[in-house]
Amino acid sequence: MRNLVLVLGDQLDPHAAALDDFDAAQDAVWMAEVVEEATHVWCHQKRIAFFFSAMRHFRDQLRKKHWEVHYHQLGRQPRKDRGPDFATVLTADVGRLGPQKLVVALPGDYRVRQSLQQAADRLGLELEVRPDRHFYVSPEEFAEFAGGRKSLVLETFYRHVRRQHDVLMDNGQPVGGKWNFDEENRKAFGREGPGRLAGPHAFRPDRVTQEVCGLVAARFGDHPGTLDSFDLPVTHAQARTMLRDFIHRSLPQFGPYEDAMWTDEAFVYHSRLSAALNVKLLDPRVCVQKAVEAYQTGAAPLNSVEGFVRQILGWREFIRGVYWLFMPDYAEKNHLQHQADVPPFFWDGQTDLACVRESMQHVVRHGYAHHIHRLMVLGNLALLLGVHPRKFHDWHMAMYVDAVDWVSLPNALGMSQYGDGGIVGTKPYVSTGNYIHRMSNFCGGCRYDYRAATGEDACPFTTLYWDFLDRHYGRFQKNPRMSLQIKHVEKKRATPEMVEIRAAAERLKRAWGGEGAVEGPQ
Ligand code: SF4
C-alpha cells in the first residue's frame, strides 16, 4: 500500500486535499469510530449519533466508488473494540496494512493532530498533513493578517475577506453602501410573538442512522441528551436540501430576528446548518453563493443576506484563525481566574429559571440552541457564576452537535467566557435579566422578577450581574467598552443593597458552582 488516507469524523469532504491524488489501485482510506471521541467529554447522545451516522454514510459513498475503506466500527459489545483511541486503533491497522505513508487533512482539533503525529512517529511512518481547503482562509494566511496588529478585530478581517473573495462587493465598495446592517438586525418579536414557525427541514433516520442510534443507546445511553426524533442531515445531499430550504423559507427573516428568542422555538429563523458545515457535508462557499444569489434575485433582503454571510465568511473563519494562531496555549487561558463548575442543570435543564429551562430544553432535545441562547442565556449565566472557561468549553463540546474543538474553544472559552481576556471579544458578554426580557417572552412565565437584584424574587442574572461587575471592578475600570457598566456599579458599591447582592450572589454560586465558585473582590 502506498498511502493510507486518514479521514476524521469532521472531514467528510470528498474534495479534501487528503484525497487529491487518491489512487484506488494503491491507496486506501482509514476511518474509525473510537470511544475516546465520545467520552473525553461526556457527549450528548445525539452528537455521537450524528458523527457516527455521517461517517458511515461517507464510508459507503467512498465504497461505491470501489475505494478500499478500512472502517473501524464500534459495536454494541465493548470487548470486541480494537482500542479506545485513534492512535491505538491506527497502530494496529498500520501493522496489518503496511502503508508507506499516512496522509491526513489538517484536523480540526489540536489534540488529535498531536496524537496522530505521535502515533506516526512511533510507527516510524511519515504523516503528511495537507491543508484543509474547506475554509476560505488558511491558518498561514490568518497569521499573515494578524502579524503586526495590536489586536484582532473581526470587522477588519471580515472586510478583508469580503474584498479578497469579492463577496457582496460592487466596484470595491460593499453592496448597499454599508458593511453591516446590525441596526436592522436586532429586533425582538414583540407581544404577539413570531406566529407559527416552520423550523428547519427535518430528515427521517434511514437504516444506517437507526443502527447507529441503537449502538448509541446501548453503549452511551447514560450520556446527556436524547436520541428522540433524530432529524439531522447526515449526507451531502441532505445537507444541500437543508441549505435550499433555509434560503427559501427562513433567510428573508433571518437578519431582523437573529437575536430574538421565543418559547418552544429552538431555531426561529436560524439555518441549523452549522453541524453539517462543521463535519464538511456542506461547502461554505456554496452557502455564501446561494445566499448572495437570493439577494440578487430579490428572494431575500440585503440585511439578512449580509448577516448570514458575516457568520460564515466572517465569524467562522475568524475564530478558526484565532484557534490555530493561539493553540495550544489558548486552551489554558483563564483571564478572570474563574474556577466554578458548570451548574448541574446545564446537563438536564431541570431548573426554575425559565430562560435557562427554555434554552436547555433545546440543547437536551436537539444538541442545539441558537447563538443568543448560547451567549446571552447559558454563557451569560456561566460567566456571571464564575465557571472555569475550560470547563464551559468541555460542556459546550459535549452538548452541541456542531461543536468541534476549533469552533468551541474561541466561541465558548473566548467569546462567551472572556477566558482569553479580549482576543475574540473586546468585553465580557454579561447582562441582567433585562436583556433576556427584551429579547424573549421568557420572563413573563418565570417565578423570578428580571428587574430585582435582591429579595425573594430576585432574578439570578440580575443579582449575579452586579456581583460580577463589583468583583471585577478593578479589572474592567480601564476597559473603555465597559465604562458605562462600571459607572453604574460604582454608584452601587457603597450601598446597603450591594451588601445584600454580594450575600445573595454568594449563595447562588455556592449552590450552583461547586467548590471553586466563591471568590473575593479583585
Ligand atoms: Fe431568566 Fe430572570 Fe427572566 Fe427568569 S426573570 S426568565 S431567570 S432572566
Ions and ligands: iron/sulfur cluster
Largest sheet: 5 strands, parallel
How many structural domains in the coordinates? 3
Structural class: mainly alpha
End-to-end separation: 61 Å
Strand content: 5-15%
User: What is the topology, as strand order, of the major beta sheet?
Assistant: 3-2-1-4-5
* Annotation, overall tally of beta strands: 7
Number of helical segments? 22
Q: Nearest-angstrom radius of gyration?
A: 24 Å
Q: Please give the CATH architecture of the largest domain.
A: Alpha Horseshoe
The CATH class of the largest domain turns out to be Mainly Alpha
Output the helix-strand order. EEHHEHEHEHHEEHHHHHHHHHHHHHHHH
Keywords:
mainly alpha; 7 strands; two-stranded antiparallel sheet; Rossmann fold; Serine Threonine Protein Phosphatase 5, Tetratricopeptide repeat; 3 domains; DNA Cyclobutane Dipyrimidine Photolyase, subunit A, domain 3; binds iron/sulfur cluster; five-stranded parallel sheet
Description:
This protein folds into three domains: 3-130, HUPs (Rossmann fold); 139-326, Serine Threonine Protein Phosphatase 5, Tetratricopeptide repeat, CATH 1.25.40; 345-512, Orthogonal Bundle (DNA Cyclobutane Dipyrimidine Photolyase, subunit A, domain 3), CATH 1.10.579.10. The radius of gyration is 24 Å and the shape is globular. It has 22 helices and seven strands. A five-stranded parallel sheet has the order 3-2-1-4-5, with helices on both faces. It has a two-stranded antiparallel ribbon with strand order 6-7. The protein has helices at 35-39, 45-64, 86-97, 110-123, 139-146, 154-164, 207-220, 236-249, 251-254, 274-278, 284-296, 302-326, 345-348, 354-366, 371-385, 389-399, 405-416, 433-439, 460-471, 473-476, 483-492, 496-513; strands at residues 3-6, 28-32, 69-72, 101-105, 126-130, 169-170, 173-174. The mean pLDDT is 94. Helix 14 (354-366) crosses helix 15 (371-385). Bound molecules: iron/sulfur cluster (SF4).
